[in-house]
């Protein structure tokens, strides 16, 4: 497995644990369809929370959240609609969050949570 894939998996695991510590329940991890993938889908019992996780080994070239551009947002919205259909969810409030993980070698990883990021 490539180093970036290992880093990404670590970031998603840290983000999932963080969300669970905040009281959210993880419904899906790495859910895929023909349109793309959702990193984490959770609920806080009031709404569906779709989370994009971005992990970097440093913030030297900008923060991880900066990688979530308009094209990525459109893709996440499209895939969320597919998730809702696949799980036969007719209507539920949806919040889109970004979790930015910085996992520098030899240092404790940090998770920055941007609620309702888009």
What is this structure, in a nutshell?
One of its GO terms (molecular function) is endonuclease activity. This protein has helices spanning 3-21, 70-86; strands at 25-33, 36-43, 48-56, 94-102, 110-114. With 118 residues, it is an alpha+beta fold.
Describe the structure.
By secondary structure, the protein is an alpha+beta fold. The protein has a single domain (3-114), classed as Trna Endonuclease, Chain: A, domain 1 (3-Layer(aba) Sandwich), CATH 3.40.1350. The chain has two helices and five strands, in the order H-E-E-E-H-E-E. The protein has helices at residues 3-21, 70-86, and strands at 25-33, 36-43, 48-56, 94-102, 110-114. It has a five-stranded mixed beta sheet with strand order 1-2-3-4-5, with helices on both faces. A hairpin with a 4-residue loop joins strand 2 and strand 3 (48-56). GO terms for molecular function: endonuclease activity; nucleic acid binding. This is UPF0102 protein FB388_1558. Pfam families: UPF0102. Belongs to the UPF0102 family. Keywords: Endonuclease, Hydrolase, Nuclease.
SSE layout and pairing:
Elements (H helix, E strand, L loop, with lengths): L2 H19 L3 E9 L2 E8 L4 E9 L13 H17 L7 E9 L7 E5 L4
What sort of overall outline do the alpha carbons produce when their principal axes are compared? globular
From the coordinates shown, what is the CATH architecture? Answer: 3-Layer(aba) Sandwich
Spans of at least 5 consecutive residues whose pLDDT stays below 50 are none
Question: Biggest sheet: strands side by side, in what order?
Answer: 1-2-3-4-5
- Write down the CATH topology: Trna Endonuclease, Chain: A, domain 1
Cα gyration radius (Å) = 14 Å
Task: Give the number of helices.
Answer: 2
List how many beta strands DSSP finds.
5
Distance between the termini: 32 Å
Number of domains: 1
Largest sheet: 5 strands, mixed
Which band does the percent of strand residues land in? 25-35%
């Amino acid at each position: 497995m490539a180093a970036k894939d290992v880093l990404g998996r670590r970031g998603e695991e840290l983000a999932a644990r963080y969300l669970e510590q905040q009281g959210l329940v993880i419904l899906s991890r790495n859910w895929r369809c023909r349109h793309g993938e959702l990193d984490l889908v959770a609920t806080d019992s009031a709404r569906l929370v779709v989370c994009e996780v971005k992990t970097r080994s440093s913030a030297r070239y900008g923060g991880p959240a900066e990688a979530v551009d308009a094209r990525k947002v459109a893709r996440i919205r499209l895939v969320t609609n597919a998730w809702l259909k696949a799980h036969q969810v007719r209507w539920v409030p949806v919040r889109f969050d970004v979790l930015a993980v910085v996992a520098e070698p030899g240092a404790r990883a940090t998770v920055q949570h941007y609620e309702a990021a888009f």
